[in-house]
Amino acid sequence: MVNKVNQSDFLNNGESTEGVFIVVPAYNEEKTVGEIIEEIAQRGYKVILVDDGSSDDTNKIAKSSKEKFPDRIFVYRHVINRGLGAALITGMTAALRKKAKYVVTFDADGQHDINDIEKVCKPLKDDVDVDVVIGARPFEDMPRSKNFANSVMNFLTRVFYKTKVKDSQSGLRAFKAATIPKIEIMSQGYDVSSEFIREIRKNNFKLKEVTITTIYTPETQAKGTNAIVGIKILFKMIINIFK
Amino acid sequence: MLGIDIMLYQILVVIIAILAVLLLFGRYQNKKTSLQTFLLWAVLWIVLGIFTLVPESSSALANFLGIGRGLDLIIIFGLIGAFYLIFRVYLRIEKLDQDVSKLIRLIAIENEEKDENEK
């Protein structure tokens, strides 16, 4: 296998990518997934792609990307769709098994900027005390409906989990490997984002938030936090109180 | 004078109750139901049968508990019971959901590591 890509473990600015694993959960993302994981791998990061039971060509595309970067891209497949939360946990578990030092979660729909990976990793590398970094999307840039839904979710996260964060539903997060075994996620779906916040609080992890850019396209609009997902998340939060 | 002023609904309910208990007993004998579940449901159906055949008995119990009428008692307990069951089913489904995810996760990781090792 010949591949003429940059095989060094350093970014152009000299930052090391060693031990950094990017977990990309993907469900029917055939349009964007190949480009994203190849671009991440090209920078020198390791990619854990979790195909969450996609019915389109996500898996095929991911496998062909793996042929280009056999040592950097790892493809996992859920044979049944289990939801975002379950896919993230699979990816994070897999990253630990591959001896990851830092684990970054990254959405496969193309809404994140790959340059932001370094931004969320940097506080973990530079500051021994920081355990988790969340990439906060500036709400001013969001379309109005998304802005509203995400503001409500921040408020609910604050009420239920007593933690004030800038962006509770962000998909770009970075964890130190040691924190991951302590994180207990019950939910399978989109409400996983709020659960991460709860776990951060419960375990007293030191959280840092950095501002990231978000790319809004019709594709990235279709998924994520809308009103119905928000109501479902609220319902789950209420049920969780009784458990 | 039992037997003379018996109503159609009473016959129906009693037949359904007897059938339900027989069905449960069959399932218990075939080891498809635990003793606990069998007893719980058998008692529930028998109590319902008694209330149907002797409506005064539910009134007596209702008075004892401070609830006005026998029928109210049945409806209140029925609703509470139904909500409780729904809640239990909900929790059980959620547990199953998580168990399925664990299995799927294990399969995903094992398959990937098998493929990686073959190379």
From TrEMBL, chain A:
Record-linked CDD domains: DPM_DPG-synthase_like
Recorded GO MF terms: undecaprenyl-phosphate mannosyltransferase activity
Stored InterPro entries: Glyco_trans_2-like, Nucleotide-diphossugar_trans
Keywords assigned by UniProt, alphabetized: Glycosyltransferase, Transferase
Annotated ranges, domain Glycosyltransferase 2-like: 22-164
One Gene Ontology biological process: protein N-linked glycosylation
EC number annotated for this UniProt entry: 2.4.1.54
The name this protein goes by in its record: Undecaprenyl-phosphate mannosyltransferase
Regions that span the bilayer: none
UniProt cross-references to Pfam families, sorted A to Z: Glycos_transf_2 (PF00535)
Top-level division of the source organism's lineage: Archaea
UniProtKB/TrEMBL annotation, chain B:
Keyword Transmembrane helix in record: yes
Pfam family, one: DUF2304
Alphabetized InterPro entries for the sequence: DUF2304 (IPR019277)
Keyword Transmembrane helix among UniProt keywords: yes
Transmembrane segments: 6-26, 38-55, 67-87
Protein name: DUF2304 domain-containing protein
Keywords attached to this entry: Membrane, Transmembrane, Transmembrane helix
